[in-house]
Write a structure and sequence with these properties.
With 192 residues, the chain is mainly beta. The protein has one helix and 14 strands, in the order ββββαββββββββββ.
Amino acid sequence: VSTFDSLSLGKAKISGPGILLTSGDGTPPLSNTAGGYSAYTTGMAGSDADLQAIINGAFDSAGVTQDASVLTFKVNADKGVKTIMFDIVFGSDEYPEWSNSTFVDIAAVMVNGKNAAFFGGDSKKPLSILDQNLGYFQDNTSGVIGIEYDGISNKLTVIAKVKEGVNDIKIAIADTGDQSYDSAIFVANVRG
């Protein structure tokens, strides 16, 4: 985990500070140094049941989640607040060569137990390096964007319904199938 002041990754731009959750290196290189960059964590399995259920629902050949990085918090929604919004960018070194394998990696933004982060608003397209998601990524295999990841999504705005009172938020990312090739989710501008 690390923080950032703003983000400019090709077409993915976020103004304002945010947080980076990753399955590996919390301070990824600002250039593309390798096609398969990995910063191994403690070697613990680090699985996450919610992420596993999401990826299994979209792609039953995905491997077991590992190296999970999870942030949970509560938001107290005042009367009249109906939604919560997040700006996010997803990046991965699994892109594009592992898009039909056990190594598709997975991220989610869950509000009150339900994932709200999808490409194209389609629940069968979670934040993952799946064949059907590749069109949502900027190709950085040549290193034109100043970050390690071979694929960087465009900026997405996640919008989720909230209830009046306390709401549970979970932002998470994990490798699938192994502990290699880092993936990350950049999150900023949380607002009601």
